[in-house]
Design goal:
Belongs to the class-I pyridine nucleotide-disulfide oxidoreductase family. One of its GO terms (molecular function) is mycothione reductase [NAD(P)H] activity. Keywords: Disulfide bond, FAD, Flavoprotein, NAD, Nucleotide-binding, Oxidoreductase, Redox-active center. The chain has 3 domains: 159 residues, FAD/NAD(P)-binding domain (3-Layer(bba) Sandwich); 119 residues, FAD/NAD(P)-binding domain (3-Layer(bba) Sandwich); 105 residues, FAD/NAD-linked reductase, C-terminal dimerisation domain (Enolase-like, domain 1), CATH 3.30.390. The strands form 6 sheets. Strands 1, 2, 3, 4, 5, 6 and 18 form a 7-stranded mixed sheet that branches. It has a 5-stranded antiparallel sheet with strand order 19-20-23-22-21. The radius of gyration is 24 Å and the shape is globular. Helix content is 29%, strand content 25%. It is α/β, with parallel strands linked by helices and 459 residues long. The chain has 12 helices and 23 strands. The chain binds flavin-adenine dinucleotide (FAD). Flavin-adenine dinucleotide binds next to helix 1, helix 2 and helix 7. Flavin-adenine dinucleotide (FAD) binds next to helix 1, helix 2 and helix 7.
Length: 459
Amino acid sequence: MSKHYDLIIIGTGSGNSIPGVENHHKSIAIVEKGRFGGTCLNVGCIPTKMFVYAAEVARTIKEAEKFGISAKIEHIDWPSIVSRVFDKRVDPIADGGEEYRRGPKTPNIDVYDQHARFVGPKTILTGQGEKEVEITGDEIVIATGARPFIPDTISDSGVEYYTNENIMRIPELPSSMIVYGGGYIAMEFAHMFDALGVEVKIVNRSEKLLRHLDSEVSDAFTELTKKTMETHLGSNIASAAQSDAGVEVTLENGTKVEGELLLVATGRTRNGDQMDLDKAGIEMDGSRIKVDEYGRTSVEGIWALGDVSSPYQLKHVANAEMRAIKHNLEHPEDLQKLPHEHVPAAVFTNPQIATVGLTEDEAREQGLDITVKVQRYGDVAYGWAMEDDSSFAKIIADKHSKQILGAHFMGPQASTLIQQIITAMNFGIDAERLAKDEYWIHPALPELSENALLGLDFS
Ligand SMILES: Cc1cc2nc3c(=O)[nH]c(=O)nc-3n(C[C@H](O)[C@H](O)[C@H](O)COP(=O)(O)OP(=O)(O)OC[C@H]3O[C@@H](n4cnc5c(N)ncnc54)[C@H](O)[C@@H]3O)c2cc1C
């Protein structure tokens, strides 16, 4: 069977937001081999942050003593935590999204649920259930995301392991867990399970955790994590085997680490490699589908967005790229660029981290004349209220233009606090104006940013 469409969208993460009322007149195929909603909704941002929130409630109870409050966790009801996330929130949204696309409100849309791969120019082989279908499209949007990368030492070992795709649905909490990786996904899970009482053992090839961040942040984060969790840094896993307790890994330095569960979070592989893109003439840029500034691939009429093609693997970037491509599909005479200026990111760890713009090292490598201020939470009034002695905000600005070049927050509410700085960077408000031309509520936590800005030396 074969069918032609005006538009084919492969992947229902950010891709699913493209069809709207403005293209009801078009015939559209949506191909999704997994759950509707993609990574962020089902196995990424949303469930992880819901678990992290529960973990932070647990951590607040554990740390209540320093505020003169005696409190103790009686019981962690893991099935109820899982149910709050999936039964009550995530799964109904995923199911509802698919029902909507298959239902009477979108009669112009067909949904296919099998893996899509190219078999010729603008020609895709997919299917619905058992039925194989070849579809062709005038326009095609590839939004197929990424999947967990599993090192050969683990996949070849035959050992049982978990990834972000199944760890959040385990039936009960293990007593201990090896977390393999030192990036943001590994660290968020480490924080979450540690707070819920699991003995977490981090194994990471690099000496540094979150090593892509500003080095002052990654150094401080690594030191803090070493104090709170068992860490094995600077040595990779050489082999893994099932053991009485669960899994035992042997590191290249000979150390053996055992845990009831092994969670692998060692990065993400983009899914373009599974789509026979060469059959359609679509070029790659390393592991990414090559796109120009408007999201066009090397083949006219084929677009790509999100993790599969973007230099950023972040949901807000995938969404922003989707909005640009949605516009470009309707307005080919007025193309919008994929917005890649001042892209912020947050890591929902303990402590929380948020970042935007250049790191100090990057700014110095570019030869920029900069001023840098590190402001500690413990030196502003709200930080006193929080008894904080480790958190900070770091702002980097150009000494001459006074424009903010980068900001890096590590501490409570980092992802919220940084938003003011992102606004200033986007609207070109310089550091001095931002600090002085508005009120900062006293004694609220944003005084941290105010003081950091006032501390920049423009003399
Ligand atoms: C654990 C975790 C936590 C995260 N937390 C955050 C966060 O806090 N903030 C943030 O900004 N980002 C976060 N991310 C990243 C974010 O989830 C991704 O950047 C975002 O979901 C990418 O969206 P996308 O539309 O490009 O792809 P996806 O959402 O991955 O959608 C791709 C879809 O395509 C389908 N598909 C793939 N190949 C095919 C094929 N050949 N045929 C048919 N269907 C196919 C997949 O099943 C999937 O549903 C997190 C990621 C993970 C893994």
